[in-house]
Amino acid sequence: MNERFPLSPKMWQEWTKDEISLSEGLEAFTEIEKLYERGVQEYLSVPLWYDYINFLQESDQSVSQCSPSGISKMRNLFERALTAAGLHIVKGSKIWEAYREFEQAILLTIDDNNNEEKAKQVQRIRALFHRQLSVPLVDLRSTLMDCKSWEGEQGNVNDINSDFDGIPSNVITSHQKAIEMYNARKQYEDQLSNPDTSDTDRLQQFKNYLKFEESSGDPARVQILYERAVAEFPISSDLWLGYTSYLDRTLKVPDLLKSVYSRATRNCTWVGELWVRYLLSLERIHASEEELSAVFEQSLQCRFPSFKEYLDLFLTRVDGLRRRMSIAGAKEDELDYALIRDTFQRAVEYLSPQLVSCDDLLHLHAYWARLEANLGKDMLAARGVWENLLKKSGSLLEVWLSYIEMETAMGHINEARSIYKRCYSKRFPGTGSEDICHSWLRFEREYGTLDDLDLAVKKVTPRLQELMIFKTQQEPKKELMLSSKRESSVSTNTQKKRKISKMSSDKQPPAKRKKENAPKPAEASDVDQIRATGNANDTGAVDKGEVATLPKAAETTATNKEAVGNSKIMDSKPKFYNDQCTAFISNLSLEASEKHLQEFFSDCGGVTAVRLLRDKFTGKSRGLAYVDFSDDEHLATAIAKNKQKLLGRKLSIARSDPKQSHKRSSTGSSSKGHGQGVRFRNDRNRSVEVSEGTFEERRGNNVKLMGKNTFAAPRAVAKSHGRSIKEAKMDGETEKLKSNDEFRDMLLKK
């Protein structure tokens, strides 16, 4: 498990104790010692260091026999423990006391006749007391009393009533300063020692404490406090980012930086910024290419919240390779440019245009093309970068302009002009088509000859005129849409009445509904039913200004089975949603599915339904969707995610307005009262004319049938013309009606 995840100090203690109880012999001792070494490297833990010290004292024969090598080994271990945990205000004194006890035990083993060696050992113990008295720790007064008591045992007479009698003046000064430092930090330690504090408050207390320590300016104390914090909150990315940033600014010790960054990325693998800083830190300490490559490959195996983190990693890797190639010169370890090209190629394969923003995509390819031209000295490869991007994203104006900008900056005017000739006639979103034409003219004024300018004007002028005509044709349609929105407000009451009647009809018993579905004489209400059915079902809609071709002839009868099926089609109505707690999402990627939307709003909660709008003929997404929520609180949380990206597209999220839904549905299903009819013409110029009229007029007999064809007529009327609907369908394939909105536009136009 430790190969994949860091273990807590408590788990390390349990593991080592189990191994000690199960193993014996020198080989087992070596393996357990390695376990302790691994454990103390992951998190700061005074109890784990204490267990490690006791294990060596009890199990290492060289230590228990007080051999010079064993004593030296223990002293090195104690010094490492003091460096790691000796400044721990609350628990650090435990290491100091263990160190003093070890040295005092060594003093007892020295022969009384060896006065020189005994004097050295006494001085070593005295130095330990003085060092501990200079460190702000809990219960310093007890340490001072122990020091005076020990000095008395050594024959140094001192006044018991005086705290500092027999203590050197420099030690007294350091001790008083340590007491002041402890008093300044006592409030923070008291807050951290409160067992009833929540994790959130405790984390904030650590941050406040760290801010205080950083203002004091002691890097060693700041490092100890960061180690204490990350031991309690190992997956707090804020702590790791602050810790690594502080080390990069202050200590800059290579081994320490490697250790901290390695632990940070193991605990918070999903934080891309930590991996980027890791690569930069390795580059600062002049790490080898093998180390840098290994960290980079390891980072790509992690999962990040967005593809922006992957892009930053690729760019950081390229930046490092470029810098080292630039300063390598004639060194033997000069890097090959193929490494940069391979990294760019992997980035392009990893990050498709649908997953990153247009600006990021352009930056990546512009950077690649520039390095191919300048560092790789290959202009053909630089052009190949842009040509490959044009195959994927040739509809983006920015891609063409960036390609032209590179050629212009390199002084390749003719190549830039050829790109203008390729793209000036293309259609781009918004005003892009006009912009590329004006850009070409500006380019020829600044770089071309008079003939070049004349040629550009000759080609661009017809194109601009064509765009102007197209724009003029689109303006009436926009005005028509605006006017239809204004007029739709008039029909709101009618729509509400129809909806009430629809709801009441849904509650009718099956027997009554079956009776009402029986064939009846043709009336204007039947025509309304036909229109609603044609718009609601996938039978298509008649386009504006066009006539539908009808079958040639009709037979006289239809089977009862066909009549029942046809009545079901005519009775089907489109489903209405009240949109009371619904979010409307636009600018969706065409690749987005209901599952993507479910995952996108998973952190909001309360999602009850996802409705992705699709084209009725192709089944492809239209880039629009409705997401229903259980209550307004979840809906507000979802709306707060407006402008966030999904599959590389910034979503537009707003609350769905039920009134607008009523207006649209009423516009598509009810009459505007223009008194105009709709005429359908067949191939023999016989027509079926449906008189529109007002709502009251359509309640009368205003259906006029001309000719023998009875396409889209009520069943009773069709039978009266001696021809069944099934037989009419067999004569030819009819054109499908389109959507409600297009049918409404046709009525408004007429």
From TrEMBL:
It is found in: Nucleus. Residues 581-658 form the RRM domain. GO terms for cellular component: nucleus. Its main location: nucleus. InterPro entries: HAT (IPR003107), Nucleotide-bd_a/b_plait_sf (IPR012677), RBD_domain_sf (IPR035979), RRM_dom (IPR000504), Suf (IPR008847), TPR-like_helical_dom_sf (IPR011990). Residues 478-548, 651-725 are annotated as: Disordered. Pfam families: RRM_1, Suf. Keywords: mRNA processing, mRNA splicing, Nucleus, Repeat, RNA-binding. One of its GO terms (biological process) is mRNA processing. It comes from the Eukaryota. Residues 478-488, 680-700 have a biased composition (Basic and acidic residues). SUPFAM superfamilies: RNA-binding domain, RBD, TPR-like. One of its GO terms (molecular function) is RNA binding. PANTHER family: PRE-MRNA PROCESSING PROTEIN PRP39-RELATED, RRM DOMAIN-CONTAINING PROTEIN. This is Squamous cell carcinoma antigen recognized by T-cells 3.
